[in-house]
């Protein structure tokens, strides 16, 4: 087809290309393993907009790209606390809600919770949400700690007495201070949202004390490592642990992975769809966000990635196995114990990073 | 004769033109690499240097501009606080020394492994030499990242090595090798080995066989011959190889990140943390600049050593 | 030191009074299917200065390297001082070698180069330094002791190499073209020095050279090599005056070579018919040959006399025209053209500084030589 184009035609096509591309391409930047297999295909079929889909595995990576500017992405999915800071930095454009009729499907309670980071939900819509808890290899933990292992408590990880026994089969933490510190504070019975340096120092003490027993600090590696038995306890994101569990089951090697929301409390987070100010194609971005909010599409994603969504209309379409799992869609008793992700000011941020590096390296 | 002149004429014209511009052939020859350095080294360096004296901010990009215009007033604000941090917190200094130590021992290990290989290749027949050199360079044909990931597969507790050792019954518990400093050494030595072998080979292949014969003739057994003749004469190759391994290993990020454990405190990782976790680009830049300046010291030591050796 | 006394005056190779110091028997060295050294047998005696002489690529270095232990013979046996050298590494042999390329250690000073061999034998520094100093004095390099090889001239380097190979007082010193890189004057000086050193230290030398004049000057005996084989061994005058083949006659000095057939074969003389001369050569001694056998006759230029008048004899007298004269200072070389067109060279000593009667270009002359002046060669 191209071969038969005349030179004039070619020039005309080249001139038309940018406009065409703007109409027809949307660049999505999302977490790895965080979408159903056919979502993109369905979107392309319905809208005729081509999707370029990239993935990241940490908020930090996403943030570096966004702060540098001209990332070229139309839709990104930061976690709520990162979203809040990035809004302050002027990274996002307000959503044109007239283009998002499917907003009516969303759970008003959860949207209100998300508004704590993004007043009036001006910039973001919840993609999925979840908790930070403990993923563990049922058999290996039982083998080392017996039947009454405290699998529903942070002490499984943060109490050196247990950590020491688990070290040889592998404990991992997320490589993110803002996820680990609140958990450590919770374990100590302190306010998970505390910004007091003395509290943070104490939390750092806890983290440092178990340093010798930690295999590594990483935010996605543990998914496959839990699944194939390489590690046995991970402080991780709920959905990621479920994915590990599903993979372990598929592999059929007898590895059983479970997830628990510790009874001391756990962090609740929202991954938010948002549009960068310099998005090349905001219209297509809005189309994408609206498409995701379709009940059947969101249900597909939840069924695939095992994360809770905030889309009330989708719930009837979600597998009962997932919908009724209190670890994924927690009941009111658990919900009451969840706390939001903290946003730290620059000074606290620096203090935490410093404490974090020191605790990690033992220096 | 005239044909020759005619053919040369355009050349002379160009030369004259360049001379008119104040450029002579020699200047021009130097100009190309200079331009290269300017564009790909000096400019990025200046960008980073500028960043390192900026003030961090929640903004996009996350720092304040150096120059601010307020009507007719223009203020330039340089913040050296970022460098202050580097000394406030022993972390940076520790990371620096840790990196140097690790790079140093990696380079020593690489040398110990690379030397016999280079020696063997240099002493092989010409036909075999080119095959062996090919083998040394072969790993470069696959992605570096892929190869480091492959090591993960080897080293993990249910990886190839452990499975083999468990199978043979040498061990009954898998050895923890991944996420240790051992794995980092292994990764660096493995990755940088060709950079050690190639300059050593280039040096050893020039070694005059007659000198080895002379030594043997004068009663030098193989080992003394090696230490008194081969080794000192290959010093330029050793230093070149050492520098090619040591210097980039100091700033290595990928290998400690993928193979190292939490206590592998490399300066590259600290930099990564500053940049990504703290989103403190100015401090990250300050670390980079400080590292560059600090790197100059070991490089200078090696350079002078090399010059001294070469003069001899 | 008093005047050098030749050690090898007794000529054991003639008397057989003592066993050979080096015994090379049936040694062959093949590289692939190329014979670099081909079935060489050679005895060399203690205190000799033996010269290996031959053209480039004839196997001299290879033979020497087998003695030093750098190459192993494909076949045959080498004995030094009664010991079989098979399987002995270079560092286990009582030999030292001075390399064709000198092979000085570029990273060591002159002093360290010379001391190298002593240190390898575990000698203490003080003692080694004493020996080195003595050696440097001998080769007149004392002022250069702390220089590196690249700071020396070619001749100085050569002397360092010599000192280094001598300092250990080896039983056998092997020198591969030791003087190849030197100018004529320095070369002659050093030749003389070599002899002096050799005689004062009593070391056995084997010197490789392809310079026949050098061999003549230095050697107690000469072994002439060609294509991997030793073609003749003998004292310098023997090699010069009694070559055993056309190759040796040709290789050593210059020669006029004639091909002829035996026309008379008597017990006390033979006569050769030589087409090139348009006549015959009378040889004043018996030769074991048969009538009509093809033979060669070699006569050296200095044996040929030229005169304006016909010499007072009948044999070996020929007419010629002076074609060219090359003045060499001490002698002049005349190129003479015989009526057959054959050229002949003859030298004439320049006995006076000026000679009005001198033979000159275009002169018609007579040439002649004694009937014992030439060598009859069968191969
Ligand atoms: N290692 C080798 N492999 C193959 N051929 C060789 C080797 N060493 C020597 N030769 C061959 O053997 C022959 C004799 O070599 P050698 O070095 O002994 O000659 P030479 O008499 O010393 O000559 P020159 O006077 O030029 O030094 C040469 O034809 C050479 O090419
Ligand atoms: Mg030779």
What is the H/E string of chain A? Answer: HEHEHEHHEHHHEHHEHEHEEHHHHEH
Task: Identify every distinct bound molecule in the structure, by name, code or SMILES.
Answer: adenosine-5'-triphosphate, magnesium ion
CATH topology of the largest domain in chain A: the name is D-Maltodextrin-Binding Protein, domain 2
Quick one: CATH class of the largest domain in chain A? Answer: Alpha Beta
Describe this structure in words.
The complex is a heterotrimer of chains A (363), B (312) and C (379). Chain A is α/β, with parallel strands linked by helices. Chain A has two domains: 188 residues, D-Maltodextrin-Binding Protein, domain 2 (3-Layer(aba) Sandwich), CATH 3.40.190.10; 159 residues, Periplasmic binding protein-like II (D-Maltodextrin-Binding Protein, domain 2). Helices cover 45% and strands 15% of the residues of chain A. In chain A, strands 4, 5, 6, 7, 8, 9 and 10 form a seven-stranded mixed β-sheet that branches. Chain A has a three-stranded parallel β-sheet with strand order 2-1-3. In chain A, α9 packs across α10. Chain A is globular and about 55 Å long. The N terminus of chain A is likely disordered. With 312 residues, chain B is an all-alpha fold. Chain B folds into two domains: 79 residues, no CATH class; 229 residues, MetI-like (MetI-like fold), CATH 1.10.3720. Chain B has 14 helices and two strands, in the order ααββαααααααααααα. In chain B, strands 1-2 form a two-stranded antiparallel sheet. In chain B, α3 packs across α14, α4 packs antiparallel against α11 and α11 runs antiparallel to α14. Chain B is globular and about 85 Å long. Chain C has two domains: 231 residues, P-loop containing nucleotide triphosphate hydrolases (Rossmann fold); 123 residues, Nucleic acid-binding proteins (OB fold (Dihydrolipoamide Acetyltransferase, E2P), Beta Barrel), CATH 2.40.50.140. Chain C contains nine helices and 20 strands. Chain C has a six-stranded mixed β-sheet with strand order 6-7-8-3-9-10, sandwiched between helices. In chain C, strands 13-12-11-14-20 form a five-stranded antiparallel β-sheet. Chain C has a five-stranded antiparallel β-sheet with strand order 15-19-16-17-18, with no helix packed on it. In chain C, a hairpin with a 4-residue loop joins β12 and β13. The two termini of chain C are 47 Å apart. At the B-C interface, α9 and α10 of B face β6 and α3 of C. The site of magnesium ion has 4 residues of chain C, from α2. Chain B: It comes from Amaricoccus solimangrovi. Chain B: It is found in: Cell membrane. Chain B: Pfam families: BPD_transp_1.
């Amino acid at each position: 087809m191209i071969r038969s184009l005349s030179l004039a035609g070619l020039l005309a096509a080249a001139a038309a290309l940018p406009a065409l591309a703007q109409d027809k391409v949307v660049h999505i930047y999302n977490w790895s393993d965080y979408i159903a297999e056919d979502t993109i295909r369905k979107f392309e079929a319905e809208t005729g907009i081509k999707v370029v889909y990239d993935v990241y595995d940490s908020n930090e990576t996403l943030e570096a790209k966004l702060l540098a500017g001209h990332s070229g992405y139309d839709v990104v999915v930061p976690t709520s606390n990162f979203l809040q800071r990035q809004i302050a930095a002027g990274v996002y454009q307000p959503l044109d809600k007239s283009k998002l009729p499917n907003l009516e499907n969303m759970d008003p309670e959860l949207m209100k919770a998300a508004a704590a980071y993004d007043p009036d939900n001006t910039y973001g819509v919840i993609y999925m949400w979840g908790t930070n808890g403990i993923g563990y290899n049922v058999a290996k933990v039982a083998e080392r700690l017996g039947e009454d292992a405290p699998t529903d408590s942070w002490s499984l990880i943060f109490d050196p007495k247990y950590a020491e026994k688990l070290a040889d089969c592998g404990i991992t933490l997320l490589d993110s201070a803002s996820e680990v510190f609140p958990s450590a504070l919770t374990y100590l019975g302190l306010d998970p949202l505390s910004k007091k340096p003395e509290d943070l120092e104490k939390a750092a003490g806890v983290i440092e004390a178990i340093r010798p027993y930690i295999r590594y600090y990483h935010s996605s590696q543990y998914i496959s490592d839990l699944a194939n038995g390489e590690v046995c306890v991970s402080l991780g994101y709920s959905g990621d642990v479920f994915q590990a569990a599903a993979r372990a089951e598929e592999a059929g090697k007898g590895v059983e992975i479970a997830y628990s929301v510790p009874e001391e409390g756990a962090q609740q987070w929202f991954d938010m769809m948002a549009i960068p100010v310099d998005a090349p194609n905001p219209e297509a971005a809005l189309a994408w966000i609206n498409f995701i909010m379709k009940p059947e599409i969101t249900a597909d994603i939840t069924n695939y990635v095992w994360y809770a969504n905030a889309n009330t209309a989708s719930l009837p379409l979600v597998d009962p196995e997932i919908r009724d799992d209190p670890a994924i869609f927690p009941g009111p008793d658990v919900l009451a114990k969840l706390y939001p992700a903290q946003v730290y000011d620059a000074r606290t941020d620096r203090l935490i990073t410093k404490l974090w590096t020191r605790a990690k390296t033992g220096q | 004769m005239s044909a020759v002149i005619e053919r040369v004429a355009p050349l002379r014209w160009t030369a004259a033109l360049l001379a008119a511009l104040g450029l002579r052939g020699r200047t021009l020859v130097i100009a190309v690499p200079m331009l290269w350095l300017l564009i790909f080294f000096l400019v990025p360096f200046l960008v980073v240097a500028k960043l390192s004296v900026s003030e961090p901010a929640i903004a996009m990009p996350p720092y304040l501009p150096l120059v601010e215009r307020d009507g007719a007033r223009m203020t330039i604000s340089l913040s050296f606080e970022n460098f202050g941090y580097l000394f406030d917190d022993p972390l940076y200094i520790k990371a620096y020394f840790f990196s140097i130590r690790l790079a140093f021992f990696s380079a020593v290990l690489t040398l110990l492994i690379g030397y016999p290989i280079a020696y063997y290749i240099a002493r092989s027949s010409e036909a075999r030499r080119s095959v062996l050199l090919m083998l040394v360079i072969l790993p470069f044909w696959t992605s570096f990242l892929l190869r480091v990931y492959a090591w993960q597969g080897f080293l993990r507790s249910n990886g190839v090595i452990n499975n083999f050792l468990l199978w043979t019954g040498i061990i009954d518990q898998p050895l923890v090798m991944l996420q240790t400093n051992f794995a980092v050494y292994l990764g660096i030595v493995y990755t940088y080995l060709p950079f050690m072998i190639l300059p050593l080979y280039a040096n050893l292949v020039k070694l005059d066989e007659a000198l080895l014969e002379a030594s043997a003739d004068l009663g030098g057994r193989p080992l003394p011959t090696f230490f008194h003749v081969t080794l000192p004469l290959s010093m330029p190759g050793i230093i070149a190889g050492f520098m090619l391994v040591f210097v980039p290993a100091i700033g290595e990020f990928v290998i400690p990140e993928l193979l190292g454990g939490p206590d592998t405190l490399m300066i590259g990782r600290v930099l990564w943390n500053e940049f990504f976790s703290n989103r403190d680009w100015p401090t990250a830049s300050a670390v980079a600049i400080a590292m560059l300046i600090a790197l100059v010291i070991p490089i200078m030591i090696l350079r002078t050593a090399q010059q001294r050796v070469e003069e001899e | 030191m008093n005047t050098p006394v030749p050690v090898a005056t007794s000529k054991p190779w003639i008397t057989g009074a003592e066993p050979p110091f080096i015994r090379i028997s049936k040694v062959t060295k093949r590289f692939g299917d190329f014979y670099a050294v081909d079935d060489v047998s050679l005895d060399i005696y203690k205190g000799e200065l033996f010269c290996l002489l031959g053209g480039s690529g004839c196997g001299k270095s290879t033979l020497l390297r087998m003695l030093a232990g750098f190459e192993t013979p494909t076949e045959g046996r080498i004995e030094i001082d009664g010991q079989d050298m098979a399987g002995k590494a270079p560092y286990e042999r009582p030999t030292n070698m001075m390399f064709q390329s000198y092979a000085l250690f570029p990273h060591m000073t002159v002093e360290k180069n010379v001391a190298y061999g002593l240190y390898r034998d575990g000698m203490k520094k003080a003692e080694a330094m004493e020996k080195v100093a003595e050696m440097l004095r001998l080769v007149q390099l004392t002022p250069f002791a702390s220089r590196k090889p690249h700071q020396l001239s070619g001749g100085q380097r050569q002397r360092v190499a010599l000192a280094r190979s001598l300092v250990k007082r080896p039983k056998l010193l092997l020198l591969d073209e030791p003087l190849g890189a030197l100018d004529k004057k320095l070369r002659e000086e050093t030749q003389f020095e070599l002899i002096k050193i050799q005689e004062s230290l009593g070391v056995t030398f084997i010197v490789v050279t392809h310079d026949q004049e050098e061999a003549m000057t230095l050697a107690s005996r000469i072994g002439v090599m060609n294509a991997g084989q030793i073609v003749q061994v003998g004292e310098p005058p023997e090699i010069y005056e009694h070559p055993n083949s056309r190759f040796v006659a040709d290789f050593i000095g210059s020669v006029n070579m004639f091909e002829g057939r035996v026309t008379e074969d008597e017990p006390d003389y033979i006569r050769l018919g030589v087409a090139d001369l348009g006549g015959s050569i009378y040889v004043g001694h018996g030769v074991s040959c048969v009538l009509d056998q093809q033979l060669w006759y070699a006569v050296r230029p200095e044996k040929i006399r030229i005169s304006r008048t016909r010499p007072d004899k009948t044999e070996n007298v020929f007419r010629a025209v002076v074609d060219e004269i090359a003045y060499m200072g001490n002698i002049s070389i005349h190129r003479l053209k015989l009526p057959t067109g054959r050229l002949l060279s003859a030298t004439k000593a320049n006995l006076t500084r000026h000679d009005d009667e001198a033979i000159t270009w275009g002169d018609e002359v007579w040439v002649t030589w004694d009937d014992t002046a030439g060598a009859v060669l069968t191969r």
